[in-house]
UniProtKB/TrEMBL annotation, chain A:
Keywords: Glycosyltransferase, Membrane, Transferase, Transmembrane, Transmembrane helix. It holds the Pfam family Glycos_transf_2. Residues 473-500 are annotated as: Disordered. This is Glycosyltransferase family 2 protein. Belongs to the glycosyltransferase 2 family. The chain crosses the membrane at residues 16-36, 355-378, 390-411. Signal peptide: none annotated. It comes from Paractinoplanes ovalisporus. Residues 63-207 form the Glycosyltransferase 2-like domain. InterPro entries: Glyco_trans_2-like (IPR001173), Nucleotide-diphossugar_trans (IPR029044).
TrEMBL record, chain B:
Gene3D superfamilies: Leucine-rich Repeat Variant (1.25.10.10). The lineage of its organism: Bacteria, Bacillati, Actinomycetota, Actinomycetes, Micromonosporales. Pfam families: HEAT_2 (PF13646). It comes from the Bacteria. This is HEAT repeat domain-containing protein.
Amino acid sequence: MRDFVLAVLRGADYAVFAYFVALNSSYLIMIVLASVEFAKHLRRATFAGADDMFRSPLTLPVSVIVPAYNEGAGIVPAVQAMTALRYPRYEIVVVDDGSTDDTFEKLREHFDLVEVPRVVPSEVPYESQVVSVHVPRGDKGSLTVVRKTNGGKADALNVGINLARHPLVCMVDADSVLDPDALLSVAKPFADDPLRVAACGGVVRIANGCKVVAGRVVDVRMPRSWLVRIQVVEYLRAFLMSRTGWSRLGGVVVISGAFGVFRRDLLVQIGGMAHDTIGEDAELVVRLHHYLRDRGEDYRVIFVAEPVSWSEAPSHWKVLGSQRRRWHRGIAEILTKHRHMIFNPRYGRIGLVALPYYLIFELLAPFVELAALILLPLGLWADAIDIGFAWRFALVAYGYGLLVSLVALFIEEVSFHRYPRWSDMLRGVVAAVLENFGYRQLLALWQVWGAAAAWRGRPAVWGTMHRTGFDTHDPTPVETVGTPTSGDVEAAVGAPKSLG
Amino acid sequence: MFELFSVTMVALLVVVAGTAAGIVVVRIWRRVRNNRLAALAAGPRRALLAFVADNGEEGSEDLIAIPDDAWRASLPAALGLLGKLRGDAHAALVSVFLHRGAARAALADLHARSGVRRARAAQLLGDLELREAVPDLCGLLTDRDHEVRVVAVRALGRIGDAKAAWRLIASLDQHDPVPSLLATHALVQMGRDAEVVLSAALDHPQARVRAVCLDALGLIGATGAVGRMARVLAEDDILDVRVAAAANLGRLGARGALKPLVDALDPPAPDLLRAASARALGDLGAPAAVPALAAHLDDGEFQIAHEAAQSLRRLGGPGLVELRSRDNDHCREALALAEPELVGAA
């Protein structure tokens, strides 16, 4: 019996090791694919035609939807910055989702808003009540502010979609700072291939530590906190590299709610954002695939690496924990909801490659990480493995993870060079090492917690996001507690992972 | 097993160290290269800016005399200017490029094996607005590389020679055609000279071609094509094409467009077309459209009633009178947009 148990333990340890190798190899493959895409993108920059798109009277106009809940601290500069984006024709629709702070008052005061009667169509369902619609006095439709009762981010976005007048809809978080050409770049695939492109996501980078002037990131720096620096490396690996790699494979299933453009007609056809999941942005993309594949449409969902949306990352462990629990809960909910698509050839690459990958290497990863943390000491204690095996196992598994992070930093350096200071790059390398000591393990614990909460059907809790802002460092606590509300929402699937 | 782990660890260590060293090397190489290019480009950039500031009247000899390596370093700035300038300054800068042999090299590069080189060459020829390049650029409309075809269309639009219109239209009727909006913009840039070809193409069997031509005719203001466009509005088999016809008849603002648009407001026309016609009547700017639009303010279809109200707002005086006479949400919304100072200022 003892021999059997020891054999099982040994086998489990080897299985966990094999899983780590497979997981990190998959990351490495994505990074290689991403680097090919970056090279292609950079070589084509001179004839990409962004200026022509800016000048063309036929460029598709965009409705930028900004859901806001208790964003009084930064809503005015955020909207100001959005009004200065370089794009020929667009409108901004701010949806105040029943804020309890002075979000609306600040907007009204700054933009001289006046209430207008506006018929809100119900092309996509929403559950709350629209209280009033406001536009700046004398404005010709560039800004609309909607006040509604609190109903969550998905509900706010659905109201925004209903009010959007343009064929393309861009969803942006109220605390995001967009690069000036971001909208132009993320909408360009729709101009290049309007019949097939259904949605396009842009990359999200971390703004903590960066200098922001007049709503523009003018000086990119590594954050001061090691906790956020580690997240910078994670974002490079998971958002920039992984999603670009998936885009090349035709398997994008996540477009971050912080920055993504969709065809409005398709959003209407699929019923807008779902109310029953905390990862509504990723769920939307999976549902879009579902819908278009079912109809046999020739379509593309793509991710572009160049336009950047800058977002504030959690700088406190508690907030980070809440965020990661929420993200992983989102993965669990989406994969459960769309489980019939997984391994289903009817859904092509999405069903046979992308969703199985998210199931095996995203959803299950923290479970395996925690299992490794238990099985390895257990194997040592029971003499199933010896100490030599254990430390070699740990070094190879974590070393491979470190290598993946360094390769991501290398590709970032070659392609975009966003961190020009030597000290910042050095901090990035150190953060890639530090990530392995405590951070990954804690993340795995939170993620397991989040997935378990989804499967047990526990109500979603969003925690509190402490906004430090981009220019000042005065903590401004922003309450985002209770049922799902707008605020710090990030893509669930494909979120930065703790493994590798 | 231990040996395997040990070998793997050593290999990992080497690769990790190599990657870290790679980051350092790339960083140093970038810095050295940027410094060198900045030093080389500094003089030419100043000369370029002075040249443009003088509207190209002086300094062309200085630019032509710049050594090749310095010119290459300043090429991104020069190309950027070339794409942005118009008028005399553009013509003067083009002459500098021509003197430096850029056109000859670009024409040769149109046949390069690399798609990137072909596309770059097409982009440059378009920026140079070189009419002699039109036949070769038309050849690229059937290039195997989609990106090259896209750049060729943009270049032909920039050159604006209507002789390319038919080839461009024909290129829309092929597998994986260039984007419609891009083709439309290029055709619009060719101007009224392309009107006859565009008008004739309204009988093209491919719906996509007809829709592009309708948009182009609307944007170039081809009032002579109203009759043919009205026929498409009434008779075409494809709804999207009829919608395009309605939108562009409105855009033309010609008297002859009124009746066909009013006719399309009512069933049996599909709702999408009815809404497009309501919107187009607002764009048309004819007060005579007021009664027809007013009759649809209570239409059961949201979009039709909404567009009718918005069109009445855009028609001004008589339209606003009609809106004020109704107790209807769409009318209130339209009036509020017309007179925001009158509502809800408190």
